[in-house]
C-alpha cells in the first residue's frame, strides 16, 4: 500500500513539472518561432537559451528532494532528457506541426541500427526493439553481454516523432498514442510502418537462420503486433507479411489492437496453424508502474485465447518497469531451448 501511495505521489509531482515545461515551451516557441516561416538557426539558439535558463531545473530539484535518493536522480534525469529532446528536435515544436499528423509521419526516418555479431556459429537472428525514448545502442550493449554466442542481434532505433502521451514532446517511438492501452489503435499506420521496417531488416538474413523479434515496453508491444501479423500472414493493409518468425519475446509490454486478434486468427486455418506453432515468451514485473502488470496478463490471455498456444507468461515479484538479470537469464534459457541453439548456456 505504501509503495502505491509513494508511486502516486511521484506521478503527481512529475505531472506538475511536465505541465510547467509544456506550457513554457508552448509560450516561448510561439513567440520565438513564427509558424508562417521556417525555423532558423537564430530562433533555435534563442529558444535553447531560454530553455537553459528555465526554472524547470530548480523546480525538479525541489520536487526530487522529497523522493527516495534513487528515484530523485531518475526524476531529474527524466526532466533533463525531456528538455534535451525539445532542444535536439526543435523543428517539431513549430505550432503548425501536430502530434501524429500524416505529414509528419511521412517524413519520419528510422534512426541508426546497431548490430551485435554472433561470437559462434550464426544460427539465429533476433531484432530487438527498445522502449519509448530509448535507442538501439543501449539495447545492443545489454544484448552483447548475454551468453548467446549463436545469435546475431539487430537493434534498430525508432523514428523521432511527437508523442501524444508526452504532450507532443518529440522522442524515439515505434508509434504514437495518447495512452498506453491495448485498445488504443489510433496510430495503426505508424505501428505498421515500424513492423514493416522490422520485417525488412530480417528479410535479408540467410535462409538457414532462424528469425525472431523481441523488445521492451513499447518495443515489446511492437514485437507482439508483429507476431499477429505473422500469424495472419499479412499486415492490416492487406500486404503479405514476408518473414517466417520462430520466436517472439515481450518484456514489460502490451498487445496493441487486442480486440481484433481473435477474429484475425480464427478466420483462417493457416493463421491458426502459424499462431499455434509460434513460441512466445512474455515477462512482466508485478510492480510495474509504467505499463501495469495487468497489461501483460491481458496480452497473455488474448494471445492464448486466439490460438497462440505455445506461449509462456512469467511474472516477477517486486520488479518495476525495468529488466533484471534473472529475467534476462530466463530469456537466454528460453531462446536456447526454443531455437535449439548450440554452445549456449541452458
What is this entry, summarized?
InterPro entries: AB_hydrolase_fold, PLipase/COase/thioEstase. This protein is an alpha/beta fold.
Write the layout of secondary structure elements.
Elements: H1 2-32, H2 41-52, H3 56-64, H4 69-88, H5 102-106, E1 114-116, E2 124-129, H6 136-144, E3 151-155, E4 160-163, E5 169-172, H7 188-203, E6 210-216, H8 218-232, E7 245-251, H9 261-266, H10 269-277, E8 280-285, H11 293-306, E9 311-316, H12 325-338
Helix pairs in contact: 1-2, 1-3, 1-4, 3-4, 7-8, 8-10
What does this structure look like?
This protein has helices at residues 2-32, 41-52, 56-64, 69-88, 102-106, 136-144, 188-203, 218-232, 261-266, 269-277, 293-306, 325-338, and strands spanning 114-116, 124-129, 151-155, 160-163, 169-172, 210-216, 245-251, 280-285, 311-316. The strands form 2 sheets. A 7-stranded mixed beta sheet has the order 1-3-2-6-7-8-9, with helices on both faces. It has a two-stranded antiparallel sheet with strand order 4-5. It is α/β, with parallel strands linked by helices and 346 residues long. The model is unreliable at 28-48 and 85-106 (pLDDT under 50). The two termini are 38 Å apart. Strand 6, helix 8 and strand 7 (245-251) form a beta-alpha-beta unit. It is globular and about 45 Å long. The chain is built from 12 helices and 9 strands. InterPro entries: AB_hydrolase_fold, PLipase/COase/thioEstase. Residues 114-336 form the Phospholipase/carboxylesterase/thioesterase domain. One of its GO terms (molecular function) is hydrolase activity.
Amino acid at each position: 500500500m505504501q509503495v502505491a501511495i509513494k508511486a502516486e505521489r511521484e506521478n503527481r509531482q512529475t505531472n506538475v513539472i511536465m505541465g510547467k515545461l509544456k506550457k513554457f515551451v508552448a509560450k516561448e516557441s510561439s513567440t520565438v518561432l513564427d509558424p508562417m516561416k521556417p525555423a532558423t538557426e537564430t530562433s533555435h539558439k534563442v529558444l535553447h537559451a531560454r530553455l537553459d535558463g528555465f526554472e524547470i531545473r530548480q523546480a525538479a530539484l525541489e520536487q526530487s528532494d522529497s523522493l527516495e535518493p534513487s528515484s530523485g536522480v531518475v526524476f531529474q534525469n527524466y526532466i533533463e532528457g525531456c528538455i534535451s529532446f525539445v532542444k535536439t528536435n526543435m523543428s517539431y515544436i513549430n505550432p503548425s506541426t501536430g502530434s501524429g499528423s500524416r505529414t509528419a509521419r511521412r517524413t519520419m526516418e528510422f534512426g541508426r541500427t546497431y548490430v551485435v555479431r554472433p561470437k559462434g556459429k550464426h544460427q539465429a537472428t533476433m531484432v530487438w526493439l527498445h522502449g519509448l525514448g530509448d535507442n538501439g545502442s543501449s539495447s545492443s550493449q545489454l544484448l552483447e553481454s548475454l551468453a548467446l554466442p549463436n545469435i546475431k542481434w539487430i537493434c534498430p532505433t525508432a523514428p523521432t516523432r511527437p508523442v501524444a502521451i508526452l504532450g507532443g514532446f518529440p522522442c524515439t517511438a515505434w508509434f504514437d498514442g495518447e495512452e498506453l492501452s491495448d485498445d488504443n489503435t489510433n496510430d495503426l499506420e505508424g505501428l505498421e510502418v515500424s513492423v514493416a521496417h522490422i520485417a525488412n531488416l530480417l528479410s535479408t538474413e540467410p535462409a538457414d537462420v532462424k528469425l525472431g523479434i523481441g523488445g521492451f515496453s513499447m518495443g515489446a508491444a511492437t514485437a507482439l503486433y508483429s507476431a499477429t501479423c505473422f500469424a495472419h500472414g499479412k499486415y492490416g493493409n492487406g500486404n503479405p507479411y514476408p518473414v517466417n518468425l520462430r520466436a517472439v519475446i515481450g518484456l514489460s509490454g502490451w498487445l496493441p489492437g487486442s480486440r481484433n486478434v481473435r477474429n484475425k486468427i480464427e478466420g483462417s486455418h493457416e493463421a491458426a496453424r502459424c499462431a499455434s506453432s509460434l513460441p512466445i515468451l512474455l515477462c512482466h514485473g508485478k510492480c510495474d508502474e509504467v505499463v501495469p502488470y495487468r497489461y501483460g496478463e491481458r496480452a497473455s490471455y488474448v494471445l492464448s485465447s486466439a490460438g497462440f498456444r505455445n506461449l509462456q507468461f512469467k511474472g516477477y515479484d517486486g520488479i518495476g518497469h525495468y529488466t533484471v538479470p534473472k529475467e534476462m537469464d530466463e530469456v537466454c534459457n528460453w531462446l536456447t531451448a526454443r531455437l535449439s541453439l548450440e554452445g549456449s548456456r541452458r
